[in-house]
Specification:
The chain has 18 helices and 14 strands. It has 439 residues and is of the alpha/beta class. It starts with a strand and ends in an 8-residue tail after the last strand. Bound molecules: uridine-5'-diphosphate-xylopyranose.
């Protein structure tokens, strides 16, 4: 089969490489010549484990092609996937301008006969119908188009494995031809098939992300209860999660969810509720608890330092982890940014370390903060260490060395990566999430 992807972000590029690896001819269309040039040279632009190897392999096999031109790609494609961004507007509503703009471009280049156009971008219910109208009104005579919603559930950091070993393939369409062609394309992937209408497929994606965000906010809410009552959040959630009806996956409390999906999709679903007359207060609470989780971390930090005699300007704070989660360089909606903003506003000196995301953070803060080349350099002479992202390399770091390097052995842990008793024995002050502080 020949297929095209419009957009080369996490969803577009990863899925394109995987379908090329299965032996299909795959085009990826982008609008920035410089990026397309880098992709053609085997540079994935984004950091995703295993992606560069997969990209290079399929470029060399001449199954994967990058272009800025719609014509050559669309005119020979059986299926076209739209994988452009749908960022939130100020109201929380998803901005669909890119989806609609590329739909018109696709339409102009459709060949004679049937082409399936499928949206993998997360879009509100009804969007694919609007895409269908646009395609039909701009397509050349003789071209036929069938629209399908085929949402993607991959996570950054584990995108390739998530795609290959997905729990389900969701295909929503009114067209039997579209469903059959998409089933054929997805044949090598594991997971159950969910075949449904356009609206249900569109809503499955939002519902999945909102449900996962709800679990995280619920765990964070319980961590607030633990901090007030002296209970231990890890034990509470373990005790609860052993109930098979509940489970404990995606219930890690911490510093709140970030990234390009959960914050945006929860807000978009709230907006859909508000505009369609559905009570969105449960989701509004999920969103609010996420903000409170970030604030709670910062408040614990400020409360601790307000009691200290010396001024903030004389203090250096180390931050470990800048990406919104481990194994990615993505800093969209990352909790580290809210923390750094606050630290700089309060006059602290900030030294950060992240194995992948420092370059992206440099674009925001420039030389206002120091970028360490390893975790130990970051904590050198620091008054406190804030752990924001649970990269593996922090989990078994040399705590004795850290203690000897720091001016004061104080750790604020937004991801609960250490045991309070271990840190207590070593003489650290250790303030984590939903657990008794070691003071
Ligand atoms: C998410 C969905 O998981 C994926 O199915 C969808 O396609 C895109 O959105 P992603 O944002 O890449 O994926 O990462 P994910 O692993 O889901 O983490 C999202 C955020 O939640 C991160 O900030 C992470 O730190 C946080 N999180 C996750 C928690 O705070 N606790 C948890 O238990 C799990």
């Amino acid at each position: 089969m020949t297929i095209s992807f419009i957009g080369h972000g996490y969803v577009g590029l990863v899925t394109a490489c995987i379908f090329a690896d299965f032996g299909n001819k795959v085009w990826v269309i982008g609008h920035t010549p410089e990026k397309i040039k880098r992709l053609k040279e085997g540079d994935p632009i984004i950091y995703e484990p295993g992606l560069q190897e997969l990209l290079k392999k399929n470029l060399e096999a001449k199954r994967l092609f990058f272009t800025t031109e719609y014509d050559e790609a669309i005119s020979e494609s059986n299926i076209v996937f739209i994988t452009v961004g749908t960022p939130p507007k100020k109201t929380g509503e998803a901005d669909l301008s890119a989806v609609f703009a590329v739909s018109q471009e696709i339409a102009k280049h459709l060949r004679k006969g049937l082409t399936v156009v499928s949206c993998k971008s997360t879009v509100p219910v009804g969007t694919n119908k609007k895409v269908e109208v646009l395609l039909n009104s701009h397509k050349p005579t003789g071209a036929e188009v069938a629209v399908a919603s085929c949402p993607e559930f991959l996570r950054e950091g584990t995108a390739i494995q998530d795609t290959l070993y997905t729990d389900r393939v969701v295909i929503g369409s009114d067209s039997k031809e579209a469903i059959d062609l998409l089933l054929q394309l997805h044949e090598p992937l594991s997971g159950k098939r969910v075949i449904t209408d356009l609206a249900s497929a569109e809503l499955i994606k939002y519902t999945a992300n909102a449900m996962l965000a709800t679990k995280i906010s619920f765990a964070n809410l319980i961590s607030f209860y633990c901090e007030k009552t002296g209970a231990d959040v890890e034990t509470v959630l373990d005790g609860v999660g052993l109930d098979k009806r509940i489970g404990n996956i995606f219930m890690d409390p911490g510093i709140g969810y970030g990234g390009s999906c959960f914050p945006k999709d929860v807000k978009a679903l709230i907006n859909i509720g508000l505009t369609s007359g559905v009570d969105a207060s449960l989701l509004q609470a999920v969103d609010r608890v996420n903000d409170e989780t970030r604030n709670n971390f910062i408040n614990k930090f400020t409360a601790f330092f307000e009691k200290q005699p010396t001024s903030h300007t004389q203090k250096k704070i180390a931050v470990w982890g800048l990406s919104f989660k481990p194994n990615t360089d993505d800093i969209r909606q990352a909790p580290s940014l809210s923390l750094i903003d606050r630290l700089l506003k309060d006059g602290y000196t900030v030294s950060v370390y992240d194995q992948a995301a420092s370059e992206n953070v440099k674009k925001i803060y420039g030389d206002k903060i120091h970028y360490a080349s390893d975790p130990y350099e970051a904590v050198d002479n620091a008054d406190a260490l804030c752990i924001v992202t649970e990269w593996n390399e922090f989990k078994q770091a040399d705590l004795q060395r850290i203690k000897s390097l720091m001016k004061k052995p104080v750790i604020f842990d937004g991801r609960n990566i250490y045991h309070p008793t271990t840190l207590q024995k070593m003489g650290f002050t250790y303030i984590s999430t939903g657990r008794r502080p070691v003071l």
